[in-house]
Amino acid sequence: MPLFVQRAHAYVDLCAMGDLSVAILRTERFPELLRKCAEEAGAKTDLAATVEHAVSLGGRFPRELGMAALTAGEAHLLAAAESVGATVRRVGAEAGHADLVAVVPTGRVRVVRPGEQVADGSALVGEIEWHGARPAGLDEYVDHLQMLDGADRQVLRKWLVAEGEARALDLIRRLRYTLRHVGPMLVHIGDRHYTNLGKAANLVGKSVAADSPACVLNGLERTELSDWAEEDCAFLVLMSVLIASGTPSRTEEFSGTQLTLRRLEEFVRGRIRAYGRTVPQDAETLPDVERLRLLADLSAEGRRAAVAAGSSVFRVVQGMTINKEERAFDRPVSAADLPDAVRGLLLDHLSEEQLSSLDAPDSLARAWSARFPRLHETGSGAFSTRFEELLHGIVAVATEATRSHVGMSRGPKDVGLLGRLLAAGDPAPGSWKTSDYYCCVVPAPAFVGRFAADPESLVQVVRAIAARMRWNGWHFMPPLAGPEELFEDRDWFYPPSMPDITEWTSHHHQGHVANGVRHAIRVPLPLVLGGEVRPGVHDFRLMRSDGDPYDLADLRAAIAVAKVLQGLYQAHAAFLEGNGTSVPVRDFDNRWYQARYLASAPTA
Fold this sequence. Notes:
A seven-stranded mixed sheet has the order 9-8-12-13-14-10-11, sandwiched between helices. It is 46% helix and 14% strand. The protein is globular and about 80 Å long. The protein has three domains: 44-135, no CATH class; 156-311, no CATH class; 335-599, no CATH class. With 604 residues, the protein is α+β, with helices and mostly antiparallel strands. It is built from 23 helices and 14 strands.
């Protein structure tokens, strides 16, 4: 079954449930937002204000990120216009005779000169009114800047042609494989785009099957290397180098921006500095591509060393552009970052001294281990065990303490069985079903109150979120369960390893649109199972459907809570693995949520 069909099937529960909550939570789709922002930007006569609004989609992400989607020529033309006091006017009936600002369907702002084509489906912002002050020679200089970008692409093309057909095809196979197993990305090379997201997709991903002719990479395989466009050569070489500079998820770090040789070199050098490494002097004398490849290797080595030494890396995600920027805290997350309410709850189970070992996962796991097997005894009320009750309690208190609307934590139902299978080298977990996973979803009281007149919709929202999280557990398991080639017939992603903080994630993802997931935090949690560290077996997440985005203090608090959960999960798994037993999680399925939130709903 094609990957995109598998994904469609896996999304059915989530999307069907989400439709029931339209009236309360649904946000507009991305194309609608683009039209709205273009109209708002065009209503401003001040050019700087117009550009600011258009490139940031109404302030939903930093201006610098939106400007990074422009070509060098476009950026220069706008700067020249602002410097002479140009303004903006509505597009007239004689469109095509003035410099035009438009937002193309991918969200990129374009500056279109007379004689140039506007992409179909673009939202027109307005025309630049120069008031007779358009600089002489402006077009020639813009052309010169575009020519320089083209010259860099020619350097990349010549290198690839010199490497030969076999090398080019190998790069294609490697890149296609990576794109199948990472999140969506979108980059621009000149006026072209390369993405696996939505209707504009021209790469393998959710919307385009691996063997589809719609995938640019497949078309290149069937074309003589000498006939490849310079943009396609640049994409293949630069994206391959970008991935080599870190992890497969590096594909997302240029999303929404221009991917050029110069910008990529600047980025990789910045990563090398951030990891505390230096570039050897002899690297500066290498040809462009060879130097770039060496820098990528230095970056990857530096990252591995920094993470091994305990560097607290995380990612800042701009949901509108799916741009994901890796950063690092200047100090480790510690017990001081725990919200007071969470600390109060935990002190019923752990001592202050035990909580202070938050930065030592093994110590925290040992502290929790003393609570087993008592935590496997029957819980109170609706909870099957004290373990499930405690998990729910921690998530609930953390959700309120961080002013979140919903909190959640997912994992495999039978972690004891999972550990035994992995220890035996049995890849069976890679073929488990979504029903073999759970997600403890806890809506905050204020969020529950929004549904006072419609508790059925609350149940559907909670169930939809849980369904998506169960799917995530299923989606991340294959690389943890055995050699990746065993699972080539099914859809999977590399499991996440870094916490991330996301703004404005409610306009691309279908489930996020339906259920109003606007701002979010995710902290993936590794477990030691079968004697090896398995990333992303569990995670802890928070979301807000409106209001202020999360800040770094919120992220630190979430990571602190997640460290507590990681210790609890590790103790739970170690106890079961050590005793050769299973105590599967039985709560947090559809019936459980139905009973919990409908039973507590007010009656007329």
